[in-house]
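Work Package 3 (structural annotation) set out to generate three-dimensional models for the target panel prioritized at the project kickoff. During this period the team completed the workflow that converts sequence records into C-alpha coordinates, so that structures can be stored uniformly alongside our sequence database. As a representative example, we reproduce one entry of 613 residues exactly as it appears in the project archive.
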Amino acid sequence: MSEFRSISRSLTMNIRTLLHFEGIFKLLTVVLAVPIYTGFFRLTMWLSGYHYLTAENLLRFMIHPAFIICFSLVLVLAVLYTMLDMGAVIYNLHKSFVGERTDVFHTFLYTVREMGTALRTRKKRLVLASVFLILPIFGIGFLPAVTGNLLVRDFLIKRIGRHWYFLVLFILLYFLDVVFFFHQMYTYQIMILEDSDFHEALRRSIRLGKGRRIWDAVIYMGVLLLCYAAYAVLIGLAMLIAMALEHILRPTSLVNPISTSLMLSITTVGMILFASWTAPMSCGCISSLYYFHKKEKQAEIPGRACVECRANIPFLRRHMTLVKFMELLFFGVSLAICGIYLFQVYTVRMNPRIEYLHQLEVTAHRGASKFYPENTMSAFVGALELGADWIELDIHLSKDGRIYVMHDASLHRTCGVRERGWNLSWEELAKLDAGRWFSREFKGEPIPLLADVIDFAKENKIRLNIELKPSKQEKGLEETLVNLLVEKEFIPECVVTSQSYHSINKVKRLREDIKTVYVMGYAYGNLPKLASADAFSINMSSVSRTLVRRVHNAGKEIYVWTVNKRYNIEDMIAMNVDNIITDDVSLAKKIVGETRTSNALHEYVRWLHKWFR
Protein backbone atom coordinates (compact mmCIF):
# COMPACT_ATOMS: atom_id res chain seq x y z
CA MET A 1 0.00 0.00 0.00
CA SER A 2 2.88 2.38 0.80
CA GLU A 3 4.39 1.60 -2.61
CA PHE A 4 1.06 2.46 -4.26
CA ARG A 5 0.94 5.80 -2.39
CA SER A 6 4.55 6.51 -3.39
CA ILE A 7 3.77 5.90 -7.05
CA SER A 8 0.66 8.09 -6.83
CA ARG A 9 2.74 10.95 -5.35
CA SER A 10 5.29 10.63 -8.16
CA LEU A 11 2.55 11.24 -10.74
CA THR A 12 1.74 14.75 -9.50
CA MET A 13 4.46 16.70 -11.34
CA ASN A 14 2.08 17.82 -14.11
CA ILE A 15 -1.01 18.04 -11.93
CA ARG A 16 -1.45 21.77 -12.64
CA THR A 17 -1.30 21.14 -16.38
CA LEU A 18 -3.81 18.32 -16.05
CA LEU A 19 -6.16 20.47 -13.94
CA HIS A 20 -5.83 23.27 -16.47
CA PHE A 21 -6.56 20.93 -19.37
CA GLU A 22 -9.50 19.28 -17.63
CA GLY A 23 -11.01 22.66 -16.72
CA ILE A 24 -10.89 23.85 -20.34
CA PHE A 25 -11.93 20.46 -21.69
CA LYS A 26 -14.95 20.13 -19.39
CA LEU A 27 -16.09 23.71 -20.03
CA LEU A 28 -15.78 23.16 -23.76
CA THR A 29 -17.76 19.95 -23.35
CA VAL A 30 -20.65 21.75 -21.68
CA VAL A 31 -20.58 24.63 -24.19
CA LEU A 32 -20.75 22.23 -27.15
CA ALA A 33 -22.75 19.38 -25.64
CA VAL A 34 -25.84 21.43 -24.80
CA PRO A 35 -26.55 22.65 -28.37
CA ILE A 36 -25.55 19.25 -29.81
CA TYR A 37 -27.87 17.39 -27.43
CA THR A 38 -30.70 19.89 -27.97
CA GLY A 39 -30.27 19.68 -31.75
CA PHE A 40 -30.23 15.87 -31.74
CA PHE A 41 -33.26 15.72 -29.47
CA ARG A 42 -35.33 18.14 -31.53
CA LEU A 43 -34.29 16.44 -34.77
CA THR A 44 -35.23 13.03 -33.34
CA MET A 45 -38.66 14.20 -32.19
CA TRP A 46 -39.29 15.90 -35.55
CA LEU A 47 -38.24 12.84 -37.56
CA SER A 48 -40.28 10.47 -35.37
CA GLY A 49 -43.35 12.74 -35.39
CA TYR A 50 -43.68 13.07 -31.61
CA HIS A 51 -44.69 16.35 -29.94
CA TYR A 52 -44.49 15.26 -26.30
CA LEU A 53 -43.09 12.16 -24.59
CA THR A 54 -45.00 10.45 -21.80
CA ALA A 55 -44.90 7.08 -20.08
CA GLU A 56 -47.33 5.71 -22.65
CA ASN A 57 -45.37 6.58 -25.78
CA LEU A 58 -41.77 6.61 -24.52
CA LEU A 59 -41.06 2.97 -25.40
CA ARG A 60 -42.47 3.39 -28.94
CA PHE A 61 -40.33 6.50 -29.33
CA MET A 62 -37.19 4.66 -28.20
CA ILE A 63 -37.61 1.86 -30.78
CA HIS A 64 -38.24 4.33 -33.61
CA PRO A 65 -35.41 4.21 -36.24
CA ALA A 66 -34.83 7.97 -35.90
CA PHE A 67 -34.18 7.64 -32.17
CA ILE A 68 -31.92 4.60 -32.63
CA ILE A 69 -29.79 6.41 -35.23
CA CYS A 70 -29.49 9.66 -33.27
CA PHE A 71 -28.88 7.84 -29.97
CA SER A 72 -26.15 5.75 -31.62
CA LEU A 73 -24.45 8.93 -32.84
CA VAL A 74 -24.60 10.38 -29.33
CA LEU A 75 -23.06 7.17 -27.92
CA VAL A 76 -20.24 7.35 -30.47
CA LEU A 77 -19.55 10.95 -29.41
CA ALA A 78 -19.57 9.85 -25.76
CA VAL A 79 -17.03 7.10 -26.49
CA LEU A 80 -14.73 9.47 -28.39
CA TYR A 81 -15.04 12.03 -25.59
CA THR A 82 -14.10 9.41 -22.97
CA MET A 83 -11.10 8.31 -25.05
CA LEU A 84 -9.86 11.91 -25.22
CA ASP A 85 -10.33 12.34 -21.48
CA MET A 86 -8.50 9.09 -20.67
CA GLY A 87 -5.72 9.86 -23.15
CA ALA A 88 -5.03 13.25 -21.54
CA VAL A 89 -4.77 11.71 -18.07
CA ILE A 90 -2.53 8.86 -19.25
CA TYR A 91 -0.22 11.27 -21.12
CA ASN A 92 0.14 13.73 -18.23
CA LEU A 93 0.71 11.01 -15.63
CA HIS A 94 3.32 9.21 -17.72
CA LYS A 95 5.14 12.49 -18.37
CA SER A 96 5.22 12.95 -14.61
CA PHE A 97 6.37 9.35 -14.08
CA VAL A 98 9.38 9.83 -16.37
CA GLY A 99 10.15 13.25 -14.80
CA GLU A 100 9.22 15.53 -17.70
CA ARG A 101 6.96 18.56 -17.73
CA THR A 102 4.33 19.23 -20.39
CA ASP A 103 1.66 21.81 -21.24
CA VAL A 104 -2.00 21.99 -22.25
CA PHE A 105 -1.29 22.30 -25.98
CA HIS A 106 0.89 19.18 -26.14
CA THR A 107 -1.61 17.28 -24.02
CA PHE A 108 -4.37 18.06 -26.51
CA LEU A 109 -2.12 17.33 -29.50
CA TYR A 110 -1.05 13.95 -28.12
CA THR A 111 -4.53 12.77 -27.15
CA VAL A 112 -6.01 13.70 -30.53
CA ARG A 113 -3.14 11.94 -32.31
CA GLU A 114 -3.57 8.76 -30.26
CA MET A 115 -7.33 8.71 -30.78
CA GLY A 116 -6.82 9.19 -34.52
CA THR A 117 -4.33 6.31 -34.57
CA ALA A 118 -6.83 4.05 -32.78
CA LEU A 119 -9.56 4.93 -35.29
CA ARG A 120 -7.32 4.46 -38.35
CA THR A 121 -5.71 1.19 -37.24
CA ARG A 122 -7.96 -1.82 -37.82
CA LYS A 123 -6.44 -3.86 -34.98
CA LYS A 124 -6.94 -1.01 -32.51
CA ARG A 125 -10.46 -0.05 -33.55
CA LEU A 126 -12.09 -2.55 -31.21
CA VAL A 127 -11.13 -0.27 -28.34
CA LEU A 128 -14.26 1.74 -29.24
CA ALA A 129 -16.45 -1.20 -28.23
CA SER A 130 -14.37 -1.72 -25.10
CA VAL A 131 -14.74 1.92 -23.99
CA PHE A 132 -18.47 1.74 -24.71
CA LEU A 133 -18.83 -1.31 -22.44
CA ILE A 134 -16.97 0.30 -19.54
CA LEU A 135 -18.88 3.60 -19.71
CA PRO A 136 -21.45 2.48 -17.06
CA ILE A 137 -18.57 1.82 -14.64
CA PHE A 138 -16.15 4.53 -15.73
CA GLY A 139 -18.88 7.17 -15.73
CA ILE A 140 -20.21 6.12 -12.34
CA GLY A 141 -20.11 9.74 -11.21
CA PHE A 142 -23.18 10.43 -13.33
CA LEU A 143 -25.29 7.81 -11.58
CA PRO A 144 -26.51 10.02 -8.70
CA ALA A 145 -27.52 12.72 -11.17
CA VAL A 146 -29.60 10.26 -13.18
CA THR A 147 -30.94 7.56 -10.89
CA GLY A 148 -31.26 9.88 -7.90
CA ASN A 149 -33.74 12.13 -9.67
CA LEU A 150 -37.20 11.46 -8.29
CA LEU A 151 -38.96 11.49 -11.65
CA VAL A 152 -36.43 9.19 -13.32
CA ARG A 153 -36.51 6.92 -10.29
CA ASP A 154 -40.30 6.72 -10.59
CA PHE A 155 -39.95 5.80 -14.25
CA LEU A 156 -37.46 3.03 -13.48
CA ILE A 157 -39.71 1.66 -10.74
CA LYS A 158 -42.77 1.72 -12.99
CA ARG A 159 -41.16 0.27 -16.10
CA ILE A 160 -38.57 -2.11 -14.67
CA GLY A 161 -39.63 -2.75 -11.07
CA ARG A 162 -42.98 -4.22 -12.10
CA HIS A 163 -41.25 -7.07 -13.96
CA TRP A 164 -38.77 -8.90 -11.73
CA TYR A 165 -37.11 -10.66 -14.68
CA PHE A 166 -36.13 -7.27 -16.18
CA LEU A 167 -34.58 -6.31 -12.87
CA VAL A 168 -32.69 -9.62 -12.63
CA LEU A 169 -31.48 -9.24 -16.22
CA PHE A 170 -30.35 -5.68 -15.54
CA ILE A 171 -28.40 -6.73 -12.42
CA LEU A 172 -26.82 -9.69 -14.26
CA LEU A 173 -25.70 -7.54 -17.20
CA TYR A 174 -24.26 -4.92 -14.86
CA PHE A 175 -22.37 -7.61 -12.91
CA LEU A 176 -20.89 -9.00 -16.14
CA ASP A 177 -19.90 -5.47 -17.13
CA VAL A 178 -18.12 -4.98 -13.80
CA VAL A 179 -16.23 -8.28 -14.26
CA PHE A 180 -15.21 -7.23 -17.79
CA PHE A 181 -14.12 -3.80 -16.53
CA PHE A 182 -11.75 -5.16 -13.91
CA HIS A 183 -10.31 -7.70 -16.37
CA GLN A 184 -9.50 -5.12 -19.04
CA MET A 185 -8.97 -2.02 -16.88
CA TYR A 186 -5.36 -1.51 -18.09
CA THR A 187 -6.10 -2.07 -21.79
CA TYR A 188 -6.10 1.57 -22.86
CA GLN A 189 -2.94 2.36 -20.89
CA ILE A 190 -1.17 -0.57 -22.54
CA MET A 191 -2.41 0.38 -26.02
CA ILE A 192 -1.11 3.94 -25.66
CA LEU A 193 2.09 3.43 -23.69
CA GLU A 194 3.16 0.07 -25.15
CA ASP A 195 1.84 0.64 -28.70
CA SER A 196 -0.11 -2.65 -28.78
CA ASP A 197 -3.16 -3.61 -30.79
CA PHE A 198 -6.41 -4.18 -28.91
CA HIS A 199 -6.26 -7.97 -28.57
CA GLU A 200 -2.66 -7.95 -27.33
CA ALA A 201 -3.39 -5.09 -24.91
CA LEU A 202 -6.39 -7.00 -23.54
CA ARG A 203 -4.29 -10.14 -22.96
CA ARG A 204 -1.59 -8.11 -21.21
CA SER A 205 -4.17 -6.36 -19.06
CA ILE A 206 -5.61 -9.68 -17.90
CA ARG A 207 -2.11 -10.97 -17.06
CA LEU A 208 -1.11 -7.74 -15.32
CA GLY A 209 -4.04 -7.81 -12.90
CA LYS A 210 -4.05 -11.55 -12.32
CA GLY A 211 -4.26 -12.44 -8.65
CA ARG A 212 -4.86 -8.82 -7.66
CA ARG A 213 -8.29 -8.06 -9.08
CA ILE A 214 -10.14 -7.96 -5.75
CA TRP A 215 -7.47 -5.65 -4.34
CA ASP A 216 -7.69 -3.48 -7.48
CA ALA A 217 -11.47 -3.30 -7.12
CA VAL A 218 -11.18 -2.27 -3.46
CA ILE A 219 -8.68 0.50 -4.30
CA TYR A 220 -10.73 1.71 -7.27
CA MET A 221 -14.02 1.79 -5.35
CA GLY A 222 -12.24 3.44 -2.39
CA VAL A 223 -11.19 6.35 -4.63
CA LEU A 224 -14.77 6.76 -5.86
CA LEU A 225 -16.08 6.62 -2.29
CA LEU A 226 -13.70 9.45 -1.37
CA CYS A 227 -15.24 11.47 -4.21
CA TYR A 228 -18.72 10.70 -2.88
CA ALA A 229 -17.62 11.70 0.62
CA ALA A 230 -16.27 15.04 -0.65
CA TYR A 231 -19.59 15.65 -2.41
CA ALA A 232 -21.53 14.78 0.77
CA VAL A 233 -19.41 17.21 2.79
CA LEU A 234 -20.11 19.94 0.22
CA ILE A 235 -23.86 19.34 0.59
CA GLY A 236 -23.49 19.32 4.36
CA LEU A 237 -21.80 22.75 4.28
CA ALA A 238 -24.59 24.00 2.02
CA MET A 239 -27.11 22.73 4.55
CA LEU A 240 -25.38 24.60 7.37
CA ILE A 241 -25.42 27.83 5.35
CA ALA A 242 -29.10 27.31 4.50
CA MET A 243 -29.93 26.74 8.18
CA ALA A 244 -28.07 29.93 9.12
CA LEU A 245 -30.11 31.82 6.54
CA GLU A 246 -33.28 30.30 8.01
CA HIS A 247 -32.49 31.91 11.37
CA ILE A 248 -31.61 35.26 9.78
CA LEU A 249 -34.61 35.42 7.45
CA ARG A 250 -37.18 33.63 9.59
CA PRO A 251 -39.21 36.83 10.22
CA THR A 252 -39.58 37.35 6.45
CA SER A 253 -41.29 35.37 3.70
CA LEU A 254 -38.00 34.91 1.83
CA VAL A 255 -36.68 31.96 3.85
CA ASN A 256 -38.09 29.14 1.70
CA PRO A 257 -37.09 30.38 -1.79
CA ILE A 258 -33.62 31.53 -0.71
CA SER A 259 -32.68 28.37 1.20
CA THR A 260 -34.15 26.16 -1.54
CA SER A 261 -32.37 28.08 -4.32
CA LEU A 262 -29.10 27.95 -2.38
CA MET A 263 -29.37 24.19 -1.85
CA LEU A 264 -30.30 23.64 -5.50
CA SER A 265 -27.46 25.83 -6.82
CA ILE A 266 -24.77 24.23 -4.64
CA THR A 267 -26.14 20.75 -5.38
CA THR A 268 -26.11 21.42 -9.12
CA VAL A 269 -22.58 22.83 -9.15
CA GLY A 270 -21.36 20.03 -6.85
CA MET A 271 -22.92 17.36 -9.05
CA ILE A 272 -21.36 18.88 -12.18
CA LEU A 273 -17.92 18.97 -10.55
CA PHE A 274 -18.34 15.45 -9.15
CA ALA A 275 -19.48 14.01 -12.49
CA SER A 276 -16.76 15.88 -14.41
CA TRP A 277 -13.89 14.71 -12.22
CA THR A 278 -14.94 11.11 -11.62
CA ALA A 279 -13.54 9.95 -14.97
CA PRO A 280 -10.09 11.61 -14.55
CA MET A 281 -9.89 10.33 -10.95
CA SER A 282 -10.83 6.83 -12.11
CA CYS A 283 -8.26 6.88 -14.92
CA GLY A 284 -5.61 8.26 -12.55
CA CYS A 285 -6.28 5.46 -10.09
CA ILE A 286 -5.98 2.87 -12.87
CA SER A 287 -2.68 4.39 -14.06
CA SER A 288 -1.30 4.26 -10.52
CA LEU A 289 -2.27 0.59 -10.27
CA TYR A 290 -0.71 -0.03 -13.71
CA TYR A 291 2.69 1.30 -12.58
CA PHE A 292 2.38 -0.50 -9.23
CA HIS A 293 1.75 -3.90 -10.87
CA LYS A 294 4.53 -3.30 -13.39
CA LYS A 295 7.00 -2.68 -10.55
CA GLU A 296 5.58 -5.51 -8.45
CA LYS A 297 6.04 -8.03 -11.28
CA GLN A 298 9.35 -6.45 -12.32
CA ALA A 299 8.01 -5.90 -15.82
CA GLU A 300 9.48 -3.32 -18.18
CA ILE A 301 7.85 0.08 -17.83
CA PRO A 302 7.65 2.23 -21.00
CA GLY A 303 10.05 5.17 -21.07
CA ARG A 304 10.00 8.70 -22.50
CA ALA A 305 9.77 7.70 -26.16
CA CYS A 306 6.18 6.41 -25.92
CA VAL A 307 4.81 9.86 -25.07
CA GLU A 308 6.99 11.97 -27.34
CA CYS A 309 4.90 14.70 -28.93
CA ARG A 310 7.09 16.74 -31.27
CA ALA A 311 5.44 19.96 -32.38
CA ASN A 312 7.39 22.87 -33.80
CA ILE A 313 5.29 25.83 -32.70
CA PRO A 314 7.65 28.84 -32.55
CA PHE A 315 4.70 31.25 -32.59
CA LEU A 316 3.50 29.89 -29.26
CA ARG A 317 6.95 30.20 -27.74
CA ARG A 318 7.31 33.82 -28.90
CA HIS A 319 3.83 34.91 -27.83
CA MET A 320 3.18 32.99 -24.60
CA THR A 321 1.55 36.04 -22.98
CA LEU A 322 -0.96 36.25 -25.82
CA VAL A 323 -1.60 32.50 -25.58
CA LYS A 324 -2.24 32.75 -21.82
CA PHE A 325 -4.56 35.71 -22.39
CA MET A 326 -6.54 33.76 -25.03
CA GLU A 327 -6.83 30.81 -22.67
CA LEU A 328 -8.17 33.06 -19.90
CA LEU A 329 -10.57 34.72 -22.33
CA PHE A 330 -11.85 31.36 -23.54
CA PHE A 331 -12.20 30.20 -19.93
CA GLY A 332 -14.21 33.29 -18.98
CA VAL A 333 -16.49 33.13 -22.04
CA SER A 334 -17.10 29.41 -21.46
CA LEU A 335 -17.95 30.03 -17.80
CA ALA A 336 -20.42 32.75 -18.84
CA ILE A 337 -22.08 30.42 -21.37
CA CYS A 338 -22.32 27.64 -18.75
CA GLY A 339 -23.90 30.16 -16.35
CA ILE A 340 -26.49 31.00 -19.00
CA TYR A 341 -27.22 27.29 -19.46
CA LEU A 342 -27.69 26.82 -15.70
CA PHE A 343 -29.99 29.83 -15.54
CA GLN A 344 -32.05 28.47 -18.45
CA VAL A 345 -32.32 25.06 -16.78
CA TYR A 346 -33.32 26.57 -13.43
CA THR A 347 -35.91 28.89 -14.99
CA VAL A 348 -37.11 25.97 -17.17
CA ARG A 349 -36.39 27.83 -20.40
CA MET A 350 -34.30 24.84 -21.46
CA ASN A 351 -36.86 22.13 -20.88
CA PRO A 352 -37.18 18.84 -22.81
CA ARG A 353 -40.79 18.00 -23.62
CA ILE A 354 -40.62 14.77 -21.64
CA GLU A 355 -43.06 13.90 -18.92
CA TYR A 356 -40.38 12.38 -16.68
CA LEU A 357 -37.74 15.10 -17.18
CA HIS A 358 -39.61 18.39 -17.31
CA GLN A 359 -39.49 20.78 -14.38
CA LEU A 360 -42.75 22.11 -13.00
CA GLU A 361 -43.08 25.91 -12.99
CA VAL A 362 -44.72 28.09 -10.34
CA THR A 363 -47.03 30.99 -11.16
CA ALA A 364 -47.92 33.64 -8.59
CA HIS A 365 -51.72 33.98 -8.64
CA ARG A 366 -52.48 37.71 -9.07
CA GLY A 367 -48.93 38.29 -7.85
CA ALA A 368 -47.90 37.36 -4.32
CA SER A 369 -51.54 37.80 -3.28
CA LYS A 370 -51.06 36.03 0.07
CA PHE A 371 -48.86 38.87 1.35
CA TYR A 372 -49.79 41.87 -0.84
CA PRO A 373 -52.94 43.35 -2.39
CA GLU A 374 -53.69 41.35 -5.53
CA ASN A 375 -52.87 42.62 -9.02
CA THR A 376 -50.74 45.52 -7.77
CA MET A 377 -47.10 46.37 -8.36
CA SER A 378 -46.36 45.48 -4.72
CA ALA A 379 -47.76 41.99 -5.35
CA PHE A 380 -45.68 41.62 -8.51
CA VAL A 381 -42.46 42.74 -6.79
CA GLY A 382 -43.27 40.30 -3.97
CA ALA A 383 -43.75 37.46 -6.47
CA LEU A 384 -40.33 38.23 -7.95
CA GLU A 385 -38.69 38.20 -4.51
CA LEU A 386 -40.33 34.87 -3.66
CA GLY A 387 -38.83 33.30 -6.79
CA ALA A 388 -41.96 32.82 -8.92
CA ASP A 389 -41.37 31.68 -12.51
CA TRP A 390 -44.51 33.46 -13.75
CA ILE A 391 -46.91 36.17 -12.59
CA GLU A 392 -50.61 35.68 -13.32
CA LEU A 393 -52.69 38.84 -13.69
CA ASP A 394 -56.08 39.92 -15.04
CA ILE A 395 -56.76 42.77 -17.44
CA HIS A 396 -59.61 45.09 -18.41
CA LEU A 397 -60.05 48.01 -20.82
CA SER A 398 -60.74 51.53 -19.62
CA LYS A 399 -63.21 53.93 -21.25
CA ASP A 400 -60.39 55.58 -23.23
CA GLY A 401 -58.84 52.28 -24.40
CA ARG A 402 -56.01 51.75 -21.85
CA ILE A 403 -55.38 48.24 -20.50
CA TYR A 404 -55.26 48.18 -16.71
CA VAL A 405 -54.73 45.28 -14.27
CA MET A 406 -57.62 44.13 -12.09
CA HIS A 407 -59.54 40.91 -11.54
CA ASP A 408 -63.11 42.20 -11.16
CA ALA A 409 -65.00 44.29 -13.68
CA SER A 410 -66.45 46.12 -10.66
CA LEU A 411 -64.23 48.47 -8.66
CA HIS A 412 -66.10 47.93 -5.41
CA ARG A 413 -64.24 44.99 -3.80
CA THR A 414 -60.68 46.31 -4.17
CA CYS A 415 -61.17 50.08 -4.59
CA GLY A 416 -64.38 50.73 -2.66
CA VAL A 417 -66.07 52.43 -5.63
CA ARG A 418 -69.46 51.20 -6.87
CA GLU A 419 -68.61 51.55 -10.55
CA ARG A 420 -67.47 49.48 -13.53
CA GLY A 421 -63.99 50.05 -14.86
CA TRP A 422 -65.07 50.46 -18.45
CA ASN A 423 -67.11 53.52 -17.48
CA LEU A 424 -64.02 55.43 -16.26
CA SER A 425 -61.04 56.89 -18.11
CA TRP A 426 -57.51 55.88 -17.17
CA GLU A 427 -56.99 59.28 -15.55
CA GLU A 428 -59.91 58.55 -13.21
CA LEU A 429 -58.80 54.95 -12.54
CA ALA A 430 -55.26 56.06 -11.67
CA LYS A 431 -56.58 58.10 -8.71
CA LEU A 432 -58.20 55.08 -7.00
CA ASP A 433 -56.71 53.22 -4.00
CA ALA A 434 -56.28 49.50 -4.75
CA GLY A 435 -54.39 48.61 -1.56
CA ARG A 436 -56.22 49.91 1.49
CA TRP A 437 -58.83 47.09 1.37
CA PHE A 438 -56.00 44.59 2.00
CA SER A 439 -54.14 46.50 4.75
CA ARG A 440 -53.55 50.04 5.94
CA GLU A 441 -49.90 49.44 5.15
CA PHE A 442 -50.74 49.53 1.44
CA LYS A 443 -52.94 52.61 1.52
CA GLY A 444 -52.56 54.56 -1.72
CA GLU A 445 -51.44 51.58 -3.83
CA PRO A 446 -52.54 52.46 -7.41
CA ILE A 447 -54.08 50.30 -10.09
CA PRO A 448 -51.23 49.41 -12.50
CA LEU A 449 -51.22 49.72 -16.28
CA LEU A 450 -50.34 46.52 -18.14
CA ALA A 451 -47.68 48.44 -20.08
CA ASP A 452 -45.90 49.27 -16.80
CA VAL A 453 -46.12 45.66 -15.62
CA ILE A 454 -44.59 44.47 -18.91
CA ASP A 455 -41.70 46.92 -18.47
CA PHE A 456 -41.18 45.56 -14.94
CA ALA A 457 -41.27 41.95 -16.20
CA LYS A 458 -38.77 42.65 -19.00
CA GLU A 459 -36.40 44.38 -16.64
CA ASN A 460 -36.52 41.52 -14.11
CA LYS A 461 -36.68 38.57 -16.56
CA ILE A 462 -39.99 37.19 -15.28
CA ARG A 463 -42.82 35.95 -17.50
CA LEU A 464 -46.48 36.96 -17.45
CA ASN A 465 -49.69 34.95 -17.59
CA ILE A 466 -52.13 37.59 -18.89
CA GLU A 467 -55.77 36.62 -18.42
CA LEU A 468 -58.37 38.37 -20.55
CA LYS A 469 -61.65 39.23 -18.82
CA PRO A 470 -63.68 40.15 -21.91
CA SER A 471 -67.14 41.73 -21.86
CA LYS A 472 -69.47 43.30 -24.39
CA GLN A 473 -68.62 46.75 -23.03
CA GLU A 474 -64.84 46.27 -23.56
CA LYS A 475 -64.76 46.14 -27.34
CA GLY A 476 -61.33 45.77 -28.90
CA LEU A 477 -59.65 44.33 -25.78
CA GLU A 478 -57.95 41.52 -27.76
CA GLU A 479 -56.71 43.86 -30.52
CA THR A 480 -55.38 46.39 -27.99
CA LEU A 481 -53.57 43.65 -26.07
CA VAL A 482 -51.95 42.17 -29.19
CA ASN A 483 -50.81 45.61 -30.36
CA LEU A 484 -49.28 46.29 -26.93
CA LEU A 485 -47.42 42.95 -26.87
CA VAL A 486 -46.05 43.62 -30.37
CA GLU A 487 -45.05 47.17 -29.44
CA LYS A 488 -43.27 45.98 -26.27
CA GLU A 489 -41.72 42.97 -28.08
CA PHE A 490 -42.98 40.79 -25.25
CA ILE A 491 -44.67 37.94 -27.14
CA PRO A 492 -42.07 35.22 -26.32
CA GLU A 493 -42.21 36.02 -22.58
CA CYS A 494 -45.94 35.72 -21.98
CA VAL A 495 -49.05 33.60 -22.44
CA VAL A 496 -52.52 34.99 -23.05
CA THR A 497 -55.27 33.14 -21.21
CA SER A 498 -59.04 33.41 -20.98
CA GLN A 499 -62.14 31.51 -19.94
CA SER A 500 -63.62 32.59 -23.28
CA TYR A 501 -62.49 30.29 -26.10
CA HIS A 502 -63.82 32.87 -28.55
CA SER A 503 -61.41 35.41 -27.04
CA ILE A 504 -58.25 33.29 -27.33
CA ASN A 505 -59.34 32.20 -30.81
CA LYS A 506 -59.49 35.86 -31.74
CA VAL A 507 -56.00 36.47 -30.29
CA LYS A 508 -54.67 33.49 -32.25
CA ARG A 509 -56.11 34.84 -35.50
CA LEU A 510 -54.50 38.24 -34.84
CA ARG A 511 -51.03 36.80 -34.01
CA GLU A 512 -50.41 33.10 -34.48
CA ASP A 513 -47.12 33.20 -32.54
CA ILE A 514 -48.81 34.29 -29.29
CA LYS A 515 -49.11 31.32 -26.92
CA THR A 516 -52.73 30.95 -25.79
CA VAL A 517 -54.15 29.08 -22.80
CA TYR A 518 -57.81 28.10 -22.37
CA VAL A 519 -58.94 28.45 -18.72
CA MET A 520 -61.58 25.97 -17.50
CA GLY A 521 -63.35 25.36 -14.21
CA TYR A 522 -63.76 21.70 -15.14
CA ALA A 523 -62.54 19.55 -18.03
CA TYR A 524 -64.57 17.05 -20.05
CA GLY A 525 -64.22 15.75 -23.58
CA ASN A 526 -61.36 15.79 -26.07
CA LEU A 527 -59.47 18.95 -25.08
CA PRO A 528 -56.67 18.64 -27.67
CA LYS A 529 -59.28 19.19 -30.38
CA LEU A 530 -59.47 22.85 -29.30
CA ALA A 531 -56.88 23.95 -31.84
CA SER A 532 -56.63 27.61 -30.81
CA ALA A 533 -55.45 26.62 -27.32
CA ASP A 534 -51.73 25.87 -27.02
CA ALA A 535 -52.24 24.86 -23.38
CA PHE A 536 -55.04 24.37 -20.85
CA SER A 537 -55.45 25.91 -17.40
CA ILE A 538 -57.75 23.70 -15.36
CA ASN A 539 -59.19 23.76 -11.87
CA MET A 540 -57.23 21.44 -9.61
CA SER A 541 -60.27 19.28 -8.81
CA SER A 542 -60.67 18.29 -12.50
CA VAL A 543 -57.08 17.18 -13.11
CA SER A 544 -56.27 13.49 -13.47
CA ARG A 545 -53.31 11.48 -14.72
CA THR A 546 -55.28 10.41 -17.79
CA LEU A 547 -56.10 14.02 -18.67
CA VAL A 548 -52.46 15.10 -18.25
CA ARG A 549 -51.19 12.29 -20.47
CA ARG A 550 -53.81 12.99 -23.14
CA VAL A 551 -52.89 16.67 -23.23
CA HIS A 552 -49.14 15.92 -23.29
CA ASN A 553 -49.55 13.39 -26.09
CA ALA A 554 -51.15 16.17 -28.13
CA GLY A 555 -47.99 18.25 -27.64
CA LYS A 556 -49.68 20.74 -25.30
CA GLU A 557 -49.18 21.80 -21.69
CA ILE A 558 -51.44 21.77 -18.67
CA TYR A 559 -51.65 24.48 -15.99
CA VAL A 560 -53.50 23.92 -12.70
CA TRP A 561 -55.18 26.48 -10.42
CA THR A 562 -55.36 27.39 -7.55
CA VAL A 563 -53.00 25.03 -5.65
CA ASN A 564 -52.18 26.21 -2.12
CA LYS A 565 -51.85 23.13 0.13
CA ARG A 566 -48.74 20.96 0.41
CA TYR A 567 -50.52 17.70 -0.36
CA ASN A 568 -52.21 19.27 -3.40
CA ILE A 569 -48.90 20.58 -4.72
CA GLU A 570 -47.32 17.15 -4.24
CA ASP A 571 -50.26 15.52 -6.06
CA MET A 572 -49.82 17.88 -9.02
CA ILE A 573 -46.10 17.14 -9.16
CA ALA A 574 -46.87 13.41 -9.15
CA MET A 575 -49.29 13.93 -12.05
CA ASN A 576 -46.55 15.72 -14.05
CA VAL A 577 -48.45 18.94 -14.71
CA ASP A 578 -46.43 21.74 -16.29
CA ASN A 579 -47.40 24.75 -14.19
CA ILE A 580 -49.17 25.34 -10.89
CA ILE A 581 -50.85 28.64 -10.14
CA THR A 582 -50.76 29.37 -6.43
CA ASP A 583 -51.27 32.06 -3.78
CA ASP A 584 -48.43 30.56 -1.67
CA VAL A 585 -45.38 30.90 -3.93
CA SER A 586 -42.84 30.24 -1.16
CA LEU A 587 -44.41 26.90 -0.24
CA ALA A 588 -44.74 25.83 -3.87
CA LYS A 589 -41.15 26.77 -4.71
CA LYS A 590 -39.88 24.87 -1.68
CA ILE A 591 -41.74 21.67 -2.63
CA VAL A 592 -40.78 21.93 -6.31
CA GLY A 593 -37.18 22.60 -5.26
CA GLU A 594 -37.19 19.41 -3.22
CA THR A 595 -38.20 17.37 -6.27
CA ARG A 596 -35.35 18.87 -8.31
CA THR A 597 -32.74 17.31 -6.03
CA SER A 598 -32.09 13.61 -5.66
CA ASN A 599 -34.05 11.62 -3.12
CA ALA A 600 -30.82 10.53 -1.45
CA LEU A 601 -29.75 14.15 -1.14
CA HIS A 602 -33.12 15.16 0.28
CA GLU A 603 -32.97 12.44 2.91
CA TYR A 604 -29.40 13.50 3.75
CA VAL A 605 -30.55 17.10 4.17
CA ARG A 606 -33.44 16.01 6.40
CA TRP A 607 -31.08 13.93 8.55
CA LEU A 608 -28.65 16.84 8.92
CA HIS A 609 -31.47 19.22 9.79
CA LYS A 610 -32.79 16.84 12.45
CA TRP A 611 -29.30 16.16 13.85
CA PHE A 612 -28.44 19.84 14.21
CA ARG A 613 -31.84 20.58 15.75
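Residues 141-154, 597-606 have pLDDT under 50 and may be disordered.
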